[in-house]
C-alpha cells in the first residue's frame, strides 16, 4: 500500500508535540461561568487579535458564523452571501432553518462580490415594508471554493462604506483568516476593523485540535452566550484543555503558514502543464484543479488518485482541491505531483483507446 497523503483539508492532523504538552499541563475548570484561566487567556488574546471589544471561545467556525448571523439579524430579515461560500452550502442552511433569514446570493470570481450587485439588492431598514431589510452581509476570507483566494482589505473597506450607512452589518467568515493575513501582509485586526463580527478558526492551518473564536462588540458576545444555550453549544466540557492548545497554535503556528503556501505553489507548478487540467496559482494553501470540458471528470480523477494513496477533495463534477497543512512535507508534494501525473497519463491513454 502506498503512503496515504491526505490533501482534502487541514482538520485531520494531530496536535504537535508542543500542543500535547500544554494540553496535558492545563487545569480545566468550569469555563461557562468564567472560571477557566486558559479560556480567559485565549479570549483576551482574541480581542487583541481582532481589535474587537469581546471574544467567545466556541467549538467550531460554523458555530461562530451562526452566532454572527444571530447577533445581527431578526427572523424575516434578508442577508447577502457570496454564492459559493461555505456559509451557503456547508453549514446546513442554518441561515434559513435556525435564523429564519432570506438569503440573497451574489456570484463572484474570487470571493469579492461586485459592489454594484450588492448595492442593487441591498434593502435598507427604511425601505418599504413589503421587502425584508438587509441586516447582514457575510464575506469569506480567504474564499474556500475559489481556491483559497484572499479578499483584499481595500475591498473590505469599500464594502463597509457601501453597506454600513444602510444599517447593514458585516460578518467575516475567517476560517482561514491567518492564511489570508500571512499571504497579504494585512493583519487580522486590519481586516476586522471593516466588519462588525468575525469568526477565526484555530484548527485549520494552525493545527489546534479544536475550536474557534467569535469576536464582536460586548453586546454581540452577550447575545452569543444566550444563543449558544439555544443551540446546545454553551458548555464545552474541559474547555481549558482545548483553549490551551488553541492559544499555543495562535501564538506559535502562524508564521509557518508561509511554508504551506510555498508548498501549494510548488504543487500547482508541478501539475500546471499537464494536459486536461486547469490549475490555479495558489494565494494561500489551496490548489484548485479544474478538469477541462470534455476531459476526465473530477470524480474519476479523484478516485484514481485515491488508489495511488493521494486523497483530494472533489467539490463539483469538474473541480477538486488539494490543501496543504503542517503535516504535509516536501516529499509528500513530490509524491502528489507524481500521482497526478500518473492519473493524467492513465486516463488520457484510456480515453485514446476508447476513441480508437
Mind explaining what this structure looks like?
- With 356 residues, the chain is of the alpha/beta class.
- It folds into two domains: 5-11 and 256-355, Aspartate Aminotransferase, domain 1 (Alpha-Beta Complex), CATH 3.90.1150.10; 17-252, Type I PLP-dependent aspartate aminotransferase-like (Major domain) (Aspartate Aminotransferase, domain 2).
- It contains 14 helices and 13 strands.
- It has helices spanning 17-25, 37-50, 61-72, 86-89, 94-97, 115-121, 153-163, 177-184, 188-192, 218-230, 239-252, 257-271, 298-307, 330-355, and strands at 5-6, 54-58, 78-82, 102-106, 134-140, 169-174, 197-201, 212-216, 277-279, 286-291, 310-311, 313-316, 319-323.
- A seven-stranded mixed beta sheet has the order 2-8-7-6-5-3-4, with helices on both faces. Strands 9-10-13-12 form a four-stranded antiparallel beta sheet.
- Strand 9 (277-279) and strand 10 (286-291) form a beta hairpin.
- The protein starts with a strand and ends with a helix.
Features:
Aspartate Aminotransferase, domain 2; alpha/beta; Aspartate Aminotransferase, domain 1; 43% helix; 4-stranded antiparallel sheet; 2 domains; single chain; 356 residues; 7-stranded mixed sheet
